[in-house]
Amino acid sequence: MATLDDGHIHTLSSELPAMFDGVKLAAVATVLYVIVRCLNLKSTTASPEVSYQNTPLSRYLLKACPLLTKEYIPPLLWGKSGHLQTALYGKMGRVNTPTPCGVRKFLPMQDGATASFDLFEALGEHSTGDDITMVICPGIGNHSEKNYIRTFVDHSQRQGYRCAVLNHLGALPNVELTSPRMFTYGCTWEFAAMVNYIKRTLPDTLLVVVGFSLGGNIVCKFLGENRSNQDRVLCCASVCQGYSALRAQETFLQWDQCRRLYNFVLADNMKKLILSHRNSLLSMNSSNIGDAEFSKLIAATSLMQIDDSIMRKFHGYDSVKEYYEKESCVHYIHKVTVPLLLVNSSDDPLIHQSLLSIPRTLSEKMPNVIFALTQHGGHLGFFEGDVLFPQPLTWIDKFIVQYTDAICHWEKNRPDCQRSSQQDTNSCLQSTGAKLSG
In whole numbers, what is the pLDDT of the chain averaged over residues? Predict the structure, then answer.
């Protein structure tokens, strides 16, 4: 039987501490490597990638909106991770959230539904002296009480904007449905009702249209559905939307960037929201949602399964493909002629890179479109800060208001000309550009 002599034992015992030190060092190095990779610490900060046509308006906006060309700096330790930006937004929305004071309005719809929105008056005069109302559409299942909406509204109010925020049908807690349907991916009925109410009751106000995530799809679709929807609209800003649900459905089932996990979480939240209205939906005689649909809903693990079993049936679509095709703004957005700002983030884990070709191509073909793509920001995050703690006001809050201010001043200084004629409009743009540059 082989044995170790005293020399070998002595040598081995003297090497053990060094071996343990090496293992510790390797473990620390591995953890640091994972942290650096996960937090994307080696990534450099940069100004947004801006795509646009060379027009008097775009040249003016590049000067009037410093945030278009200024470096966006997220919090150093975690802000370069799109996942953490998205998770932080999803968990708390914003930090030190203000509580703006508004009035809730209820609007009866033709199909028996009751739309609602909150109206917040401006906290001062706008810099142009004009009466301007922001009409805001939140993200999926969101409403005016969400922290990111409250923060944006408070900032906009302080800059002289009245704000009207749509509460998605069925999204407000403890508010029962009055018809057998909820909000869907691209239904513009409730948003149209809010906008028409504002136009009717405030005949002198001008409108700024803002949409976040799913809300971005709704507002762009709304403006493109009918030319009259753009009357009295100064501009539109869409943030972190995917433009085409049909093209996005396959990417949302992939594990790349953990999209499948996000899909599951969003589906679970959506499932809980729908189930909270189960009794209302089942008790209405005109409902085409029954126990069989709810059984499928309970078993669903993705948004597409929920859309197929429940959401498409609110409007009578025969298939989920038809639902996605008809409800996506990609078929309407090219009809929007007012200044249009499209904002996305490269590290948004919910929006696949292939979808960004839609706004990029649009900005290259349409003179009224500017596409701003940030390197960091996640999905509706866009937090700013020095090292660890984010600032209460985010980059996107400031950017939308800055862009809107610039458009308002541009319109204020435009010559009085016929805007219905493209030739006259181009002449106006050239004249206005020279006036503002001077």
Answer: 89
CA dihedral of 138, 140, 141, 145, whole degrees rounded to 10: -30
- The rounded distance, in Å, linking the Cα atoms of 326 and 331 is 8
pLDDT tens-place string over residues 246-298: 999 889 989 888 999 999 999 999 999 999 999 999 989 888 899 999 999 99
* Partners of residue 238 on adjacent β-strands: 211, 342
Same domain for 276 and 321? Answer: yes
Whether 267 maps to a domain, the answer reads: yes
229: domain range? 49-244+329-415
Scanning the structure block, which residue is given the tokens 């929006």? 351
Please identify which residue in the block is written with the tokens 């957005």. 333
Report if residue 41 sits inside a domain: no
Q: How many CA atoms lie within 13 A of 244 on its CB side?
A: 17
**Positions marked catalytic:** 213, 348, 379
Q: Is residue 423 part of a domain?
A: no
CA 2 remoteness from chain centre: 71
Check whether residue 177 and residue 311 sit in a common domain: no
